[in-house]
Amino acid sequence: MAGRIHWEDLTPGSVRELGSTGVTADEIKEFAGRYDPQPFHLDEEAGRQSLFGGLCASGWHTCALVMRLTVDNMLRDSTSLGSPGLESLRWLKPVYPGDRLSLRHTILEARGLRKRPDTGLVRGRWDLFNQDGAKVLEMEGYAFFGRRHPATADELIALDAQRIV
Fold first, then answer.
1. Report field, pTM of the whole predicted structure over 0.70
2. For residues 50 and 38, what is the distance between their CA atoms, to the nearest angstrom?
3. Is residue 89 assigned to a domain?
4. Which domain holds residue 41?
5. 3-state secondary structure of 138
6. Which of 99, 119, 105, 129 is nearest to 165 (CA)?
7. From CA 164, how far away is CA 161, in angstroms rounded?
8. Is residue 60 included in any domain, yes or no?
9. Tens of pLDDT along 74-106?
10. Do residues 149 and 94 make contact, with C-beta atoms less than 8 angstroms apart?
């Protein structure tokens, strides 16, 4: 299986810095125009009059930036097999034009799958920070990764005993 990062490399407690990216007013407006056309995402004056105090990125735009950084700095070089979904998502602070965002990914849990001995499940947390160190997004979710070595029969029996899916 292609990729240098396998399920076995994603141990609970491990942390990866997944790069940074800037945000421009044009990008904010372009994304909002296509996917979240609320006035405070499209127009500076509407943003100033909103509770955000200025033009700000859609939360979904912020999630898309997290996904891009995750793919570019981890998933592209991994055995990623997709995701069954998110457990939680919180937008903690607005993202404004000129912000520089940095992403940190922490592995919270990793377990094998009894029905797919070649696959493991990872639960992780993504923390996105602006240039001032303020956390602007926190997200927890799951991802499947290929295993470097499929589980043995004994490991599968142990998984059955633990009732891990």
1. yes
2. 11
3. yes
4. 7-162
5. strand
6. 119
7. 8
8. yes
9. 999 999 999 999 999 999 999 999 999 999 999
10. no
